[in-house]
Each structure stands twice: as structure tokens, then as C-alpha cells.
């Protein structure tokens, strides 16, 4: 993908990078041991317009794992395959107001929403696929279509989480007991770990977000990845649940549908205009990138990007 290096958009992104660089609060995630070695000073930001123009600043070539930012895309796949109502018989659509790894089951036995781990593991279990490898391969292919290039698995991060992710296994068993997880818990959890360990850059995140922002058509490749309705459903759930227990604060201060991941990435999709990807490993108490949140607050504020913008 060619990035436009002369554009004023790049000047904006560089200014934002310079503004947030001095922030040194937050901690790099270490509950997945393999993530602990991430460079706390790394910072990259990219934007992709609805016309497919790409802009970036900072460490735009740094690779990191997509982690929870895979959740909206697997949710979109499940909707495409089974329809919205079927999916929501298995998982709710309410902000949990709780951390990403919360033990979450509503009165119907469903995890609160598909953006927290419990709900995402259920969503993964709903995706079709012949055998466990078949399903992961379908997920990898779909996320690659959103990104517009073939994404590959970071084997070390996957194995590291597969060895230590017992809480996620427990969440899977709770959903099985609630009657909402389909098939085998271990297979669903393994595929969830693998989808989380797909390797991306900020440009990938920006293209993935821009594909949702463009109603399901990848603006760089021109491929229709999901329907317009599915893209809207996905953006809706991102806007209410994408930032875990900071979703309300995010709606107030940023107002752009977004999803964060513990690797320190955030992707944000401004409907009809563009997608943004940002990466900086140190996380705040909710598991959201400190500099990533600051950068998106800045961008929203300076350019009046709140989705409830009053014309
Ligand atoms: N793979 C991580 C987990 O399941 C993803 C969590 C996240 O990015 N918030 O714990």
C-alpha cells in the first residue's frame, strides 16, 4: 500500500505523535508472557480515507498482535453466516461496565456482549469451519480481506497465551454451561487465541477500520468484505462496548466507534470518512493504550469527528 508522505494529513499525525510521546504512564501487558517484551516507547499511527488513501507517522512498520481488535471482525463474520438474531441468542449487546476478562453471563446465560473475552469466545464458536483448523483459516482469511493483505500468525504469542490462558478457558466453560457456546470449548478457545495472535501494523488496523467505516467495502482493494448492514451492526457494538469499562467515557470524549487490544493497539472507524490505527504498548487500568487514547481524543477534538457532531 502506498502511503502519501507529502499530505497535510501526515503533518497532523506527526504533530499528534509529538504531543503524546511524552506520556509515560501505563504498563505494558504481561499476563500473556510473550507480550511483556514490547517496546514501551514505540508509537505508530495511520489513517486510511474512505477513498483508500493511506497516511502514517511514527513506527508504522512495527508488527504487533491484533488481540481484542480481532473481536469486531469475527463478530461481523458470525452475523454474515448466521444472521443478527441467531448470533444474539448466544451473546448479548449490552455494555458490561466491567473489565475485558470479566466473568460475564446475563440472565439468559449469554455473555454480555461480543467485545469482551467471554462473548468473543462464544462468537468464535459460532463461526462455521470444517474442523478447528478450517475455522481458524476462515477467520484468518476474513481478517486478511478486511486488512487487504494476507495476515499471518505470531506463533510465539499464540503458544504463550495457549499455555497461560486458563481464565479464558473458564469463561468458555461458563458459556457452555449457559448453553450458548457451540461445539468444543477447547477448540473455540484455541481458535480465539489464534485470532488474537494474528500479526498486524497500524496501517492494517487503519484499513480494517476504514473497511467498516466504508460500509463493508475495503477502500484500498475495492473488495466487498461484509454487507453494509453487517458493517453498521459491528460499528454499533464497537461504539457501545468497544472500550470495555471505559466505553461511556470514550463516547463522551472521542465519540468514534473503536476497539482496543492489550497489545496496545486501538482501531477507530469514523463512518463514511476514514479508519485510524494507533499503537503504543503501555496500557491504562482498563487495558487501553494510554497514548492511543490520548491520540484519538486529540484527533476527535481538533477535527470535530464525534459521531454526534451537530451540523
Ligand atoms: N488475547 C487476550 C485475552 O484474551 C485479548 C485481550 C485484549 O486484547 N483485551 O486475554
Automatic annotation (TrEMBL):
Transmembrane segments: none annotated. Coiled coil: none annotated. Belongs to the glutaminase family. GO terms for molecular function: glutaminase activity. It catalyses: L-glutamine + H2O = L-glutamate + NH4(+). It comes from Nocardiopsis coralli. The chain holds residues 29 to 339 of 434 of the full protein. Homotetramer. Keywords: Acetylation, Hydrolase. The lineage of its organism: Bacteria, Bacillati, Actinomycetota, Actinomycetes, Streptosporangiales. Substrate binds at residues 68, 117, 161, 168, 192, 244, 262. This is Glutaminase. Its EC number is 3.5.1.2.
Amino acid at each position: 500500500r502506498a502511503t502519501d508522505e507529502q499530505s497535510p494529513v501526515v503533518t497532523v499525525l506527526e504533530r499528534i505523535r509529538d504531543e503524546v510521546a511524552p506520556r509515560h504512564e501505563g504498563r505494558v501487558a504481561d499476563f500473556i508472557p510473550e507480550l511483556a517484551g514490547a517496546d514501551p516507547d514505540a508509537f505508530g499511527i495511520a489513517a486510511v480515507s474512505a477513498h483508500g488513501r493511506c497516511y502514517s507517522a511514527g513506527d508504522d512498520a512495527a508488527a504487533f498482535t491484533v488481540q481484542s481488535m480481532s473481536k469486531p471482525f469475527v463478530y461481523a463474520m458470525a452475523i454474515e453466516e448466521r444472521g443478527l438474531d441467531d448470533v444474539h441468542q448466544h451473546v448479548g449487546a449490552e455494555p458490561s461496565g466491567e473489565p475485558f476478562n470479566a466473568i460475564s453471563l446475563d440472565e439468559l446465560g449469554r455473555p454480555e456482549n461480543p467485545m469482551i473475552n467471554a462473548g468473543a469466545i462464544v462468537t468464535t464458536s459460532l463461526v462455521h469451519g470444517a474442523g478447528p483448523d478450517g475455522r481458524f483459516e476462515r477467520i484468518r482469511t476474513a481478517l486478511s480481506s478486511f486488512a487487504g493483505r494476507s495476515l499471518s500468525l505470531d506463533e510465539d504469542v499464540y503458544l504463550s497465551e495457549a499455555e497461560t490462558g486458563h481464565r479464558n478457558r473458564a469463561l468458555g466453560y461458563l458459556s457452555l454451561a449457559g448453553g450458548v457456546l457451540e461445539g468444543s470449548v477447547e477448540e473455540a478457545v484455541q481458535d480465539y487465541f489464534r485470532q488474537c495472535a494474528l500479526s498486524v501494523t497500524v496501517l492494517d488496523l487503519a484499513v480494517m477500520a476504514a473497511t467498516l467505516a466504508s460500509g463493508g467495502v475495503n477502500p484500498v482493494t475495492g473488495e466487498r468484505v461484509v454487507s453494509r448492514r453487517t458493517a453498521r451492526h459491528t460499528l454499533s457494538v464497537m461504539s457501545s462496548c468497544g472500550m470495555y469499562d471505559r466505553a461511556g467515557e470514550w463516547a463522551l470524549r472521542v465519540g468514534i466507534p473503536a476497539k482496543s487490544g492489550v497489545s496496545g493497539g486501538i482501531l477507530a472507524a469514523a463512518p463514511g470518512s476514514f479508519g485510524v490505527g494507533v499503537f503504543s504498548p503501555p496500557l491504562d487500568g482498563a487495558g487501553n493504550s494510554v497514548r492511543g487514547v490520548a491520540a484519538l481524543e486529540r484527533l476527535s477534538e481538533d477535527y470535530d469527528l464525534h459521531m454526534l457532531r451537530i451540523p
